[in-house]
Amino acid sequence: MENRDNVQPELAHDIINNIRILALNGKKNFRKYLFDPLYGAGWYNKTSSQNTGKLIERIKKQASDPSFIHTIAPQCKRIICYAMAEGFSALGNSSIFFLENIQWSRSVALSPEALEFTNIISPPLREFMVMNSESNEQLFLEAVNTASEDEILTAFEPVKLDTGAEKVKLDGEIKRLYNNIQIASKYQNLPKCRKLLSTYIIKYGDNDDYARSDVDRLIDALTKREPGFDTELKSAMAIDLYFRIRKSVHEGDIKTTIQGIRKYGYIFEGDPDTKHFYDIDRLERILYKIITEKDLWKELKKEQRGE
Amino acid sequence: MSEAILKISESVEGGVCVISPAGDIDAHTAPKFKEAIDKQISSGAKNIVFDFSSLNYISSAGIGILNAALNSLKGKGGKMAIAGANAAVLDTLEIMYFTRKVPALKDIKSAVAKVKAG
Predict the structure, then answer these.
(1) Which chain A residues touch B95 with a CB distance below 8 Å?
(2) How many domains would you assign to chain B?
(3) Is the C or the N end of chain A the one with fewer CB within 10 Å?
């Protein structure tokens, strides 16, 4: 068992994405790496007659009332126990719901239930991710190898931001981001601020007109309020982007995979401390090797120049 | 796959700092590349030419570092250019949109002239 006294939001976020990737990999893996460890720890309970979805909705309604905050973790544990009897989807949804609450509330993150839950599922999920990482590269290799030239060329289509309309759209987005962050910040909702920034940066971080200095100012201001905000944001973005890349690899979606790699490069600027830094590098080597083997560079560049 | 190797040398041509990496810039060697650039920028280099004539491979990690350096130089009113990149490296730079931001020239002399031209 790992020795911790609370569950860091970053760990909860990581586990959420691991569960999502696990869900993409079939029932057998879901049973082995999530259901069985919880079953072995005695979490299975088939006594509930209520649908876990409804129980989750009930907690959501209670969550805004501070007097209920200490009941969230035990309730989440109970729901997960019931969900194990209900089915794999219910188990996945209720686990993610608990982990999201761990991310959002310090009180939930400090609960014995949160510690117990993450201690049970972290080791098997890590084991799964190591195993999946190797097959992931193989999948990518197969996806790129079997993709048509058109599919690969489309994947490299530039983001056209030179036109007035696109620029206006991007300017509008940063204003909207400011407004939304101001609102979230007013209510001390830093997880929401982090989510808003993460979504914005991942969407626009590789664009020429990306409002980098504005975004940096926002991050600095929020980090002054909560030390560590910047590193947590970075970590959350890397995990999200990596999840997106892995999902697209799994689905054979070359376009999203390549765009994801490019975004990752521009956003994290070669920082080796970024999560999944070396995994991305391996995928990239494979990609360039195949483009060379398929002799697609010339066509790709033509596409780039809009010829 | 064997570990990538990167050697970096620095010089001054026509008053402009020239950084010459030889080998591969990937996730493993990127920190070394960044260190060399940061050293030059903190020593006051305002314009930098990257001599890629002995570079075999560059990944998005390396391009991310170049982009960070570009932003830093722009903040000081400086410029950047690339010189002598082979076809493979140039292909990657183009595909990653980096040649839209920074000119890639045939040799160091032209690149130095380009950044000095203002």
Answers:
(1) 156, 297, 300-301, 304
(2) 1
(3) C
Contact (CB<8Å) A158/B71: no
Q: Is A284 on the interface with B (CB under 8 A)?
A: yes
- B1 lies in some domain: no
Summarize pLDDT for B16-72 with one digit per residue, the tens: 999 999 999 999 999 999 999 999 999 999 999 999 999 999 999 999 999 999 999
Question: Residue A22: CA atoms inside 13 Å, Cβ hemisphere, count?
Answer: 31
Indicate the residue among A101, A132, A163 that finishes a domain: A132
Name residues 206-235 of chain A within 8 A of B (Cβ).
206, 208, 212
Which residue range is the domain that position B96 belongs to?
6-117
Please write the tens of the pLDDT for every residue from B76-87.
899 999 999 999
B65, B86, B92, B95, best to mutate vs chain A, most A CBs in 10 Å: B95
Q: Is A299 exposed, middle or buried (0-12, 13-18, 19+ CB in 10 A)?
A: middle
Note the pLDDT tens digit of each residue in A197-231: 888 888 888 877 677 778 888 888 888 888 888 99
Which residues from chain B sit within 8 angstroms of residue A212, using beta carbons? Answer: 71
Domain tally for chain A? 2
Domain holding A45, by residue range, is 9-132
Q: Is B85:B26 a contact under the CB 8 Å cutoff?
A: no
